[in-house]
């Protein structure tokens, strides 16, 4: 007892621990004593004790970063023709969320290349708006807080509170009798950010669909002939989630101003990755699946779309990126192609009566499945951003039949989750796991499956 008293000086009072300590404790979700140079847990585990550098999270640094992207963005609207006043100095917590979004989250959800002459579009078009729009700032903070919650560095209540504030500000702005063009763009940006909030937390796909419907209304007010690069970027985010949420819910994609599908001339895009003519085909796929689930007969159209997907290809080309980034884009695009073919062929299989036709289709499915599996695995090996890999990984996982394939799929899910820390990935993984349990030795009907949020 004497030794214990000597070792722990009772005059120091109770030992203080927090969840804002070293990175090892935060990763393990342990309370850290924040001792310097190493905490007691790291000493006991013989681990290197590293503390996050919060010196960068200062209002001045955030202010400089906002100004940098305001200059680079050159916003083509009324906001850019008048001085942009930064809001009153925010609290340290608020600045931390904006910092986390701009330095971590934005790079996880974009295909921007890691080169100094190419700006991340989320920073170029969204970050400057946090300085002039409280609702955009709250939406950014909500997304960042949700991501920090999955990192074990923030409470879920904080993310929920910021999300509630963002919704309140959005509703207040919508209640205004007249909304000017600049405010309408802020509403569009906020609606799209709230979809990302649902993605990070893995919430209901129906909630995300409601925000998508709101974004559709704001997009319909935009003049496509005179669209700025900012609006074009927001439109691409909308079209991406339009297809992904439609596939998640088994619905037809939304139509903006009577235009059914997106026009994406870019071969390499910071939202879609390698797009070319692939993304309009994915839009057709989502629309066809939605109509078939409503009872329409789309067999002939499905065969035509399969031929279009099989004919689609993109060759490696020199781009402003490292080889790993370009290869990841190519493989994700191919994974979408092959998974789209698999979905259509499974739709066709239910209409075939001949046993020989069924056997031939299953052989073709196995070949396409192997191609999709290989592309998904290559993306995992490259260790680049995987934000748009959820849907193809989900499709490949459901079709994995062997123990070895399922082990690899679970490993990819684990790496994906560790890299991105988004609940939507874990939701897809749990759905695949549940499907394996119900599937047993025969395929389950796709129409009977509950909706899974993908994105």
TrEMBL record:
Localization (cell): Nucleus
Key words of the record: DNA-binding, Nucleus, Transcription, Transcription regulation
Family matches, as Pfam families: Fungal_trans_2, Zn_clus
GO molecular function term, any single one: DNA-binding transcription factor activity, RNA polymerase II-specific
Predominant cellular place of this UniProt entry's protein: nucleus
Positions of the Zn(2)-C6 fungal-type domain: 21-51
GO terms under cellular component: nucleus
SMART domains found in the cross-reference section: GAL4
One record GO biological process: positive regulation of transcription by RNA polymerase II
CDD domains in the cross-refs: GAL4 (cd00067)
Record's protein name: Zn(2)-C6 fungal-type domain-containing protein
